[in-house]
Structures are given as structure tokens and as C-alpha cells.
UniProtKB/TrEMBL annotation:
Name of the protein in question: Uncharacterized protein
Origin organism lineage: Eukaryota, Sar, Stramenopiles, Ochrophyta, Bacillariophyta
BP-aspect Gene Ontology terms: DNA recombination; DNA repair
Region named Disordered: 1-50
GO MF terms held by the record: magnesium ion binding
Bias-annotated ranges (Polar residues): 1-13
Record InterPro entries: Endonuclease_RusA-like (IPR008822), RusA-like_sf (IPR036614)
Amino acid sequence: MHSVSTSRRNCYDNSLRTTLRRSSTSHDAISTIREPSKGKSKTKTESFTNKQSTTPLFWHNASDPTVFHYHNTTTTGLTFRIRGNPLPLQRHRQTRRGFVYNPSQTAQTAFRQVLESQLVSQPETPLFEETIPLHMSCHFYMKRSLSDFVAQTRGRPLKMAAATVLSTRTPDVDNLAKFVLDSLNGLLYADDQQIVSLSVQKLRDNEGECWGYTDVHVSVVSDKDGSSMLLTDDPESIRHVLQVKNHLV
């Protein structure tokens, strides 16, 4: 009888050790999954993603006036600003099934819609007929990286060692110009082939949080001598168009 009870007690002890070992292992697994650091990292990622998704590609501030230039009753030019980091026009791509598409279409639509919101007083489009030769001037102010700011915080002062105003990095300046030229087809002009003269500059944004913006000036070119018809010295030839709404795209 004594040997039997000893055998039962040994079996009980072995079973108890196995149960405790399993309990300890499962407890360790649960504590590993619930590490606080992983939870915080996920929260930061989600908040960053939400912030990125709510930032528009392009927009227009109410403090940025759209200026129409006139000679007598004829529109001879237009000057406007569109906020947002300038983008290049990407080459058309082809799918495996042979379908050709424009990767820049979404961005171009956003750029175009911002300008349309500034042309509410001009019901007729395009603004310049297809027989009118035009000159276009574009100044692209590229977005600043966080490393250019003090404490790497956008909106803080720029570092003394920050890059100069001139931008020598990608994208190429000709692709930036192509983006604007192609986006304004049918809105400012019938086709960008009407642009007979083009002036382009690529700079770095030094204003505010330095998100970047694009300044565009379009003016009619005289057929006689090729000079611009814009009369900058005539105060009556310039009219500031009041914005009907502050539209963000």
C-alpha cells in the first residue's frame, strides 16, 4: 500500500510541474504581446498617416490675389499663385494589357480645380482664344525639408546652414513647366502650343512653413514685334479679383 501511494504522489507532482510550466509559458507570451512600446509606435504611425491624408496637394490662400491685366476692354494677361509643392509631369505608362494612362492626372486635376476656383468671374473658357500667342512665366518654389528648420520642426526659423534659395535638386525644371502647361489646356488657352515664349525658375520656398508654391504669369504677345501687350505702368489695366470663396482642394 505504501508503494502505491508513493507512486500516486509522484504522478501528482509531475502533473503539477507540467501545469505550472504551461502557465508560466502562456503568461510570458501574453506579456510579450502587450508591450507598451509597440502600442505607442502604432499610435504615432496612425496619426502620421491621418495627417498626410488630410493635407491637400494644392490650395489657394485668400491673401493671394488673382490679378487680371487689361488693355482697354481686352484681357492681356493673368497672374496667380497656387500653394503646394510643385510636381513634375510624369511620363505616360502602359499596363500589361496595353492600356496607356497618365500617372499625373490626379495631381493635374487638383491643380486645375484650384485655378478654376479663382476664375469665378470669367465664365468663358478658355480665357485666351486658340489664335492668340502667349508668353508664360513660371516660378517654382520647392518645399523645404525638415532638416532645414531649427529643431527639425516646420514653421521654426531656418538654420544658418540651410540650403540657399536656388534649387539644384530634382525634379527637372522642364518637367515642372510641362506639368503646368498641360494642366491649363482648355482653361487658360485652347492648347499649350499657343505658348510661344517661356520663362522658368526653380527656387526654394522661404515663406512661413515652406510647403512650396507656384507663381504663374501669362500675357498676350503682339504679332507685330513679339513684345508683351501688358501695360505695367497703367494702374487702370490691373484689377484685383476678390475671391468669392476660400476653396481648398
